[in-house]
Structure formats: C-alpha cells, structure tokens
Amino acid sequence: IDAAEQDDETADRLLLTKEGQNTSFRGTVGLIPTAPMSMSSGVQWHQVEAHSPGIWVAIGTYTSAAGFDGSSPASPEPRPALGLIAWDGGSQTPVLKDSDVYSSGLFHSISTASNEIIVGGTEASILVDENGDFIPLDAPCIITVADQEGSVWFVGEAGTSTLNHYEDGELQTYLLSKHVPISATVGGSQGDFVHFHGMNAIGEPAQWSIDIQANGSIESGRGFLNLLFLIGGACLMSMMAWTALQRMRIE
Question: Are 207 and 195 in contact (CB under 8 A)?
Fold first, then answer.
C-alpha cells in the first residue's frame, strides 16, 4: 500500500501492507520482509513516513464498535488515527510504540519539516516533534506540502481566504489577496514555487502556484499597497516642494 525509507546510510525501509481485511507494517531486511506488526489497535493504516532513526509515523482511520463512541450503531463514524512505529532495521517485527485517536475529521497527508513531521488534517493538523510527541496545530487543511526550505504549507478548501505556514517551530497565518481558487488534491514544490493541482469552481482541472520568496504572492497585497503609498506620497511631496519653489521664484 505504501512504503517509507530512512534518509541515512542504513536505507531501512518500512512497508505498509495489506494483511487479509486489515493493514499492518513489515520491515525489510535485504529483500526479505519481517513478520507483520501484530497489533494495530483496530486502525486501518493509510500512509507511513520516516521520522527519525528507528521511528516512523503513520496515519489511518479507526472505527469503533457500533455506537460505542456515540455514532450511529448502523454506521459507526471513522475517526482519524496517528501512530508511532518503532523498527530499527533488524529482523524483529515492527512495534506500535504510541498511538492516538482523535474525535473527528480526517488525516490526509504527511510532510517533513526539518527534523519534525507534519500531519495534515481536515479538522486540525498535528506536529510530531523531535521527541515523538503529538502536538495539535490550529491549521485545518485539505493538503500539506513541504517546500525546498524545509517548511510546510497548509491549503484549505476552495474559497478560503487564509493560508497557514509552519517553519522553525512557528505557525503563521497569511491573509490572501484572493481566495484559494481550486480544490487541491495534489501538491509539490520546485525551486521557489509551491504548486497545487485540483479542480476550479466549474469543475475543470486547474493549477495554483505560490512564490514562497515573494510576500505579495502570499499575503493580502498590503506590502504592495504600502509600497504604492510610499511612492505616491514621495511624488506628492516632490510636487508640493516644486510648486512652492516656483512660487518663491515668481515672488
């Protein structure tokens, strides 16, 4: 289903596998997979990413017994789940070190920010810090993308007027000059640009790009308006000074 690889000399790889009706994780030693992780806490896992040596982050959904969590007994509501997997590259089975199930929403993407992991969610996003702690971020989104600078961008639904950005332990919110124009499904980065692909308001394929080096591309345009104000003010002052000088010469 998915795979993640440690970005170091070991090149350890953890596989997300289908095991009957459930999902699990297997490490690979050479080309030989380990036995599957024996305990998944009732979670159907969807994606995995390397966090640090021997530690991996996984997202999935948890569905409780019918009606147990207050949802309809006929159709219990799936909830977002986050897990920390321990496997150091040996022949032993991966182990679910820590996990948490959240009340609502959906986890949809995992992005790397320096030595931390960002999990994007529709209700809230989660920071998995260097110590493996789960820290909620007030940054609901439909997709996250890491840029070339090691920071992460959170894009909301089409029509939203803000854009969240995480870098060096700080979450910032930008007010956009125009609403998000597309419902993004895929994102990526190249050079100074972050790209998003999806559908526009009339259901046609569309792309939206952000120049991460240009504040005017991200913010509400206040920086550009401030520049125009300064230029206009300088021109006005120059004209007033020139007019006063001409009057003094005439007198």
Answer: yes
- The model's pTM: 0.81
Convert the pLDDT of each residue in 51-65 to its tens digit: 999 999 999 999 876
Question: Which residues, including other chains, have CB under 8 Å from residue 124's CB and lie 6 or more apart?
Answer: 102, 105, 136, 137, 138, 139, 140
d(CA 145, CA 189): 7
Bridge-based pairing state of the strands 152-155 and 143-146: antiparallel
The helix/strand/coil state of 192 is: coil
pLDDT of the residue at 72: 62
Alpha helices in the chain (DSSP H): 215-218, 222-250
Class of domain 2-220: mainly beta
Strand stretches in the chain, DSSP E: 2-5, 13-19, 22-29, 32-33, 43-52, 55-62, 79-86, 95-101, 107-113, 116-121, 125-128, 134-137, 143-146, 152-155, 162-167, 170-175, 183-190, 193-199, 205-211
pLDDT band at 145 (very low <50, low <70, confident <90, very high): very high
